[in-house]
């Protein structure tokens, strides 16, 4: 346990789950990453830091790299009794050191509330992008375009190939590591892949909650982009969802990913007006 007045900071472990859950529910200042993973499922990964006043847990910060080389601020919560800036300074200093030791060179965070902005800016984060939300409401699904290969349901053994496509389709910051992709695959209500000559070259993973269906991930290997595979995956998804009684689906994408936005608009998706700024910093040892 490391003292860092006025907090005592230590690494979290899975056995801390009950008290962290209580803090996440009751904390006045709360930031959560947009993710299909429960923050508490990441307690075995570092950095996952707890801040104490005496025996009382008052703060929590999680930013484990995934994949190696890049990390997101996945959770940052502070008790109402403390100013978030002073707590952030102490926890972020420790988290940044751990990220560097783990080989991460970039850390990013969404802005889920204006209170996070001055914390990130003081730590050297700058706004680099934003996440834009889209929604589809429709009764008529567009016809499938002509595309090479075939679509099929994804299986657990496809995970290494999903990871390969993901790493080729996205820059480092926007990639997902195998554990995150495995979690999305497990939670999916519809998971389909595009296969060309027996090789998986594209996939989509769609999850559901009380709010409805959400296209959590869509990726096509850059070598096969522009051939109708992305559109085919989404249109096939819409058909499958309608068969299950869903009449809408949401998704999000990067503001600078104009190619994906053009695809979604062409298929009838519309911006919801919801967006989150993305802040990023580079780490140096």
Describe what this molecule looks like in 3D.
This protein is of the alpha+beta class and 285 residues long. The protein folds into 2 domains: 2-124, Aminopeptidase (3-Layer(aba) Sandwich); 132-276, 3-Layer(aba) Sandwich (Aminopeptidase), CATH 3.40.630. It is 28% helix and 35% strand. Strand 11 and strand 12 (199-209) form a beta hairpin. Helix 4 (159-169) crosses helix 5 (178-187). The protein is elongated. The model has no long low-confidence stretch (mean pLDDT 94).
Summarize the helices and strands and which ones pair or pack.
Elements: E1 2-4, E2 7-11, H1 17-26, E3 29-32, E4 48-53, E5 56-62, E6 70-72, E7 75-78, H2 84-101, E8 106-110, H3 116-122, E9 126-137, E10 150-153, H4 159-169, H5 178-187, E11 190-196, E12 199-209, E13 212-220, H6 229-243, E14 248-254, H7 258-266, E15 270-282
Parallel strand pairs: 6-8, 13-14
Antiparallel strand pairs: 1-2, 2-4, 3-7, 4-5, 5-7, 8-15, 9-14, 9-15, 10-11, 11-12, 12-13
Helix pairs in contact: 4-5
Number of helical segments with 4 or more residues: 7
Radius of gyration: 20 Å
Q: From the 3D structure, determine the CATH topology of the largest domain.
A: Aminopeptidase
Number of strands: 15
Name of the CATH superfamily of the largest domain: Gcn5-related N-acetyltransferase (GNAT)
**Poorly predicted sequence stretches spanning 5 or more consecutive residues:** none
Quaternary organisation? single chain
Q: How much helical structure, as a percent, in the residues? A: 25-40%
Query: Per the principal axes of the C-alpha atoms, what is the gross shape?
Result: elongated
Count of all domains? 2
Just name the CATH architecture of the largest domain: 3-Layer(aba) Sandwich
In the sheet with the most strands, the strands line up as 6-8-15-9-14-13-12-11-10
Largest sheet: 9 strands, mixed
SSE series: EEHEEEEEHEHEEHHEEEHEHE
The CA-CA distance between the termini, in Å, is 23 Å
Kindly state the mean pLDDT as a whole number?
94
Structural class: alpha+beta
Tell me the name of the CATH class of the largest domain.
Alpha Beta
Determine the strand fraction and express it as a percent band: 35-45%
């Amino acid at each position: 346990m490391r003292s860092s007045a006025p907090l005592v900071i230590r690494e979290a472990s899975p056995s801390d789950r009950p008290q962290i859950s209580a803090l996440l529910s009751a904390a006045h200042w709360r930031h959560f990453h947009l993710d299909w993973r429960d923050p508490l499922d990441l307690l075995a990964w570092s950095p996952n830091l707890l801040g104490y006043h005496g025996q009382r847990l008052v703060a929590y910060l999680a930013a484990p790299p995934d994949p190696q080389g890049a990390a997101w601020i996945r959770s940052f919560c502070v008790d109402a009794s403390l100013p978030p800036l002073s707590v952030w300074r102490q926890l972020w200093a420790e988290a940044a050191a751990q990220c560097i030791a783990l080989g991460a060179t970039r850390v990013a965070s969404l802005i889920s509330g204006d209170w996070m902005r001055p914390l990130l800016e003081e730590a050297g984060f700058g706004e680099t992008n934003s996440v834009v939300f889209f929604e589809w409401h429709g009764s008529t699904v567009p016809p499938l375009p002509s595309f090479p290969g075939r679509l099929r349901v994804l299986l657990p053994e496809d995970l290494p190939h999903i990871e390969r496509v993901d790493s080729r389709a996205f820059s480092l910051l926007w990639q997902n590591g195998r554990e995150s992709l495995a979690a999305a695959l497990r939670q999916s209500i519809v998971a389909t892949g595009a296969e060309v000559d027996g090789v998986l070259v594209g996939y989509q993973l769609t999850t559901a909650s009380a709010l409805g269906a959400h296209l959590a991930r869509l990726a096509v290997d850059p070598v096969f982009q522009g051939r109708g595979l992305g559109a085919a995956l989404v249109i096939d998804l819409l058909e499958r969802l309608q068969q299950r009684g869903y009449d809408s689906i949401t998704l999000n994408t990067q503001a600078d990913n104009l190619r994906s936005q053009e695809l979604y608009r062409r298929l009838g998706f519309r911006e919801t007006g919801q967006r989150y700024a993305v802040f990023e910093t580079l780490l140096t040892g």
